[in-house]
Amino acid sequence: ETDIDDFFMFYERHSKVLPAVSFHFLLEPSYRNRSVKQINKPVAKLMQLAVDRSPTDYVLHHDIEFVPSNNFYENVVELLQTDPEVRNMVDEKTLFVVPSFEWSNFFLNLTNSADSLNPAHDTFPLERHMILGLLERDLINTTEMRFYRRYNEDNPIIYEKWVGQKNISWYYSPFQPGYESILLTKRKGMPRYWHKWKGPWFPRVGLIEECDANGYDLAVLKDFHAFRTRKADKEIPVEDFAKEQLDEFRQGLPDRYAMHAYVPTVEDFDTRTYQDCAWPENMAPPSSERERMLVCEWQDFANSSDHRRQVPRVIEGATVDRSVSVDEISLAIHGSIDRMDKLLNNAKRWVGPISVAIYTKSAQQIQESFNFFKANARALSKVSFHFFFEKILVEKDKLYPHNYVRNCALNFTYAEYVIILDMDFVPNRRAYGDLKTLIKTDKNVRGKLQNRTVMVMPAFETSLIFENEDDMTLGLAPPSKPELLRAVHVDETVEAFHLTKFAPGHGPTNFDKWYNFNEDTSYDIEWDEGFEPYVLAKRE
């Protein structure tokens, strides 16, 4: 009750400067001993309460003793609104780090203010040029991450990049255990602060480790920072129970995220009967028994607690021979039913097996898929279809789960080798036969594939502009390398895929070398951040 009285006295005194602030209360029994109260303070629950009650799409996981740089709010809103790359990164599993700084011991000793540092708001260095000047004079430091295992000798924020790089708004940072910082994140769909944390030690450390286990990236914002407004509290020794909590938290991470990636699989679809299944009244009668069975499987999924489910080999290509998988090469392709017409181009160019995973969100989409199969049965005779079901439970689920569906196509082909391809790409003519011959006859290529090497397939796109993507036809895709080189260098109708839009995506392919390379069947390249090529690889 005393805490509540104190708060309202504070609020009445300062309400004019707090018009945009919402306050939430977490009520817990009091402790007479203030040190015990501090040690048992449920910091993680308080942080999560503030996040949950925010009305915004994005949140800044902030600490109360820090102030953000000048115009932080206006500038970060503008960044999210005008930079689609940054916005997509936040939406697609990236934590943006806001570098934080504090007065150095040198400064505190110089000013004799180590015990009473509380200058006026406008004396803090809240402009980037001020931070850079003070860093050069050793008057400020980056805020210490006291649980970072290298003890700040190599701060993950990468001080040199933040200071030196120009013409960028962000850069990637490597994760290390013990990393803790102010974060800009999406509010919904994020991992939560672990509810068992007690005390001030590990909540932010735990959140970042949980995000890392869940596949998040870390990136540092270049033009933003925060500054500590007062000297840090005297460090409280880490209690044994806090260390035990950290051990428990870390031991649970692999189990939680193994389950996160696990997808229930219907291995016995062929033998199920679905005798008690009633056909939906709002749908046309099924065109085949397989269609009826799959709709019934969907109904079972819809009534279950499963978030996702996959049904392999619902339709199996007539030319697929399960017993002959050695040296076989399959395309592994994925997509939703509205993109399936693109598959016909691949079926025309690729004479080998194709493994396709179809992303499905309703029984009606299953029926559309079977109508497509029936209308194009002859062209799809060598294609095996697998279905990936997903329920839309939260806003984030509206995003297409690329890697789940890719894995579905990849895991359920019998071929020894796979080419992982997107639906709107096609291989060159005779690629299937030429690659099979290459693997059989070239010991160097075969040895690399057998020894954890992926072979990059250079990717191209038309440079012609179409009002409607559907106007593009297979006839625009050069069928061979000589014809492709002519289209690139003479006709200028073809260009390296996205090289001008996102160079890291395919830049490491080294297209200039590929155009003129005749010395061997392959050349080595180096991986770089952002590289996302289409590849030929051994499936296992």
The mean pLDDT is 86
The total of helices stands at 19
Q: How is the largest sheet built, in terms of strand order?
A: 10-13-12-11-14-18-15
Largest sheet: 7 strands, mixed
Class from helix and strand fractions: alpha/beta
- The residue fraction in helices comes out at 25-40%
Shape: globular
Distance between the termini: 63 Å
Using the CA coordinates, give the radius of gyration: 29 Å
Q: What does it look like?
A:
The structure is a single chain. The protein is of the alpha/beta class and 540 residues long. It is built from 19 helices and 18 strands. Helix content is 35%, strand content 16%. The strands form 4 sheets. The protein has a 7-stranded mixed β-sheet, sandwiched between helices. A 5-stranded mixed β-sheet has the order 1-7-3-8-6. Strands 2-9-4-5 form a 4-stranded mixed β-sheet. Helix 13 links the parallel strand 12 and strand 13. Helix 9 packs parallel to helix 10 and helix 11 packs antiparallel against helix 13.
SSE blueprint and pairings:
Elements: H1 2-14, H2 34-39, H3 43-52, E1 58-61, E2 66-68, H4 72-82, H5 84-91, E3 94-98, E4 100-103, H6 105-111, H7 128-136, E5 140-142, H8 159-164, E6 170-173, E7 182-186, H9 203-213, E8 217-221, E9 226-228, H10 240-261, H11 289-302, E10 308-315, E11 329-336, H12 343-349, E12 354-360, H13 363-375, E13 383-390, H14 402-411, E14 417-420, H15 431-441, H16 443-450, E15 455-457, E16 460-462, H17 481-491, E17 494-496, H18 503-506, H19 511-516, E18 534-538
Parallel strand pairs: 3-8, 4-9, 11-12, 11-14, 12-13
Antiparallel strand pairs: 1-7, 2-9, 3-7, 4-5, 6-8, 10-13, 14-18, 15-18, 16-17
Helix pairs in contact: 9-10, 11-13
